[in-house]
Design a protein that fits this description.
Blueprint: H1 3-13, H2 19-29, H3 35-46, H4 60-69, H5 88-123, E1 133-134, E2 137-139, E3 145-147, E4 154-159, E5 162-166, E6 172-176, E7 186-190, E8 195-200, E9 206-209, E10 214-218, E11 226-237, E12 246-250, E13 253-257, E14 261-266, E15 273-278, E16 281-285, E17 288-292, E18 296-301, E19 306-311, H6 314-317, E20 324-331, H7 332-343, E21 346-350, E22 357-363, H8 368-376, E23 381-386, E24 389-394
Parallel strand pairs: 1-8, 6-8, 11-12, 21-24
Antiparallel strand pairs: 2-3, 2-7, 4-5, 5-6, 7-10, 8-9, 9-11, 10-11, 11-14, 12-13, 13-16, 14-15, 15-18, 16-17, 18-19, 20-22, 23-24
Helix pairs in contact: 1-2, 2-5, 3-4, 4-5
């Protein structure tokens, strides 16, 4: 018999155990193969010189321990009448022993139940959030709205002489008819948090919208310029037309091109950024104008009232449309803002906000829990998903 188990059992029986000793006793009792030792210790208690009457009916203690080790516990104990001729102190002692044995049985059961609950909690699927995908709403000239992710492939609607078609690849294209016989209308495509979408304009220009963004455009380009406006972030591959410049408006800024690839980031929480991938663009803010060459990014400095120009890695800038988050010494707030848009979640900081920066790549097609695990590997931070919220705390 284990000397430690023997010691802890008698500590428990004499009510002199510490909380730590009680926990250790329960762990030892729940060790596979300990049943025989526990039953032997109970027998020892009731054959000791302390008393000569067992307060349990024959076999009760064994059944109690058997049911405990099987994972259940009896609600009642069979009574055995103790003759009144016995001395009162012995009756009290025996009753106390019975209570202790019952308490031990209940203790074993409760300990095991708690461990089972903990094991179940560890294996139970934790709350998670799926990544975003192709989601957008198309608002027509008359105010009608079409949920594009639910719409079937094929022709969606006719706008003037232009057919609006959902393609097999999930994007939407405007197929222009005879424009001289019709009028142009304004349509708007908007993506929600957790959405992005690809659009082909009537002139063949490709627009890729990031999450929580919008683009407004005519159903047919007529006149001397091609005008569109955006909010949020959009990537453009502009179809060349030297006779009709393409102009994108966001806030007070305008980007004018003939045919080129560029990205505009114009979310409200940050100054607008225009990044040129190929070709050339002219960007303006009121009287301030600036020409960009490929690899440059322009940010308007409201204090100095001029454009700040810097060289950037354009692959990183448009990584979002290629299924990646790219962080380059990015502050925690900005990282979480990107995740919040894509996974449509709320952010909550618990305690002191960690002052951390992140550098690396995270795929956009993985569940939120995996993305957060990648960030946690940097150390010093812990994320908890609660429904549609992420709680952030310092480790």
């Amino acid at each position: 018999m284990s000397e430690r188990l023997n010691y802890l059992f008698h500590q428990y029986f004499n009510k002199t155990e510490t909380p730590a000793e009680r926990d250790e006793l329960m762990r030892l009792i729940n060790t596979p193969g300990s049943e025989f030792e526990v039953q032997s210790l109970m027998e020892e208690v009731f054959t000791s010189e302390h008393f000569d009457i067992d307060p349990f009916a024959p076999g009760t203690r064994e059944r109690m321990l058997n049911t405990v080790f099987e994972g259940t516990v009896e609600n009642t104990v069979e009574e055995r009448i103790i003759p009144l001729t016995q001395r009162l102190n012995k009756i009290i002692y025996i009753a106390a022993a019975a209570v202790l044995v019952l308490a031990l049985s209940l203790g074993i059961y409760q300990y095991r139940s708690q461990k089972n609950k903990e094991a179940l909690a560890a294996t139970r699927p934790q709350p998670d959030v799926k990544p975003g995908g192709n989601k957008a709403v198309l608002t027509l000239a008359n105010g009608a709205k079409i949920e594009l992710n639910d719409a079937k492939n094929g022709k969606l609607v006719q706008q003037g002489n232009t057919a609006v078609v959902k393609l097999a690849n999930g994007s939407v294209a405007y197929v222009a008819g005879n424009q001289s016989a019709g009028t142009s209308m304004i349509n708007t495509m908007s993506t929600p948090r957790g959405g992005q979408y690809r659009l082909q304009l009537p002139d063949g220009t490709i627009v890729m919208l990031n999450a929580e963004s919008s683009v407004s455009y005519p159903t047919a380009f007529t006149g001397k310029i091609r005008n569109v406006s955006i909010t949020g972030e959009a990537y453009f591959e502009v179809a060349k037309d030297k006779k009709m410049p393409f102009i994108v408006t966001f806030g007070k800024q305008k980007v004018e091109v003939l045919g080129t690839h560029f990205d505009i980031r114009a979310y409200n929480e940050q100054p607008g950024k225009t990044t040129l991938l190929e070709g050339s663009v002219k960007i303006s803010n009121g009287s301030q104008k600036q020409l960009l060459v490929p690899g440059q990014q322009a940010v308007y400095n409201t204090g100095a009232q001029k454009f700040d120009i810097k060289a950037v890695d354009t692959d990183d800038i448009v990584a979002w449309k290629n299924g990646l988050f790219v962080f380059d010494n990015t502050e925690l707030d900005q990282v979480m803002l990107e995740l919040a848009r894509w996974y449509d979640i709320d952010i909550e900081y618990k305690g002191v906000k960690p002052q951390l920066n992140f550098t690396g790549l995270v795929k956009k097609n993985i569940p939120l829990s995996k993305a957060l695990k990648i960030l946690e590997t940097t150390g010093g931070i812990k994320f908890t998903i609660a429904a549609n919220k992420v709680i952030i705390e310092k480790k």
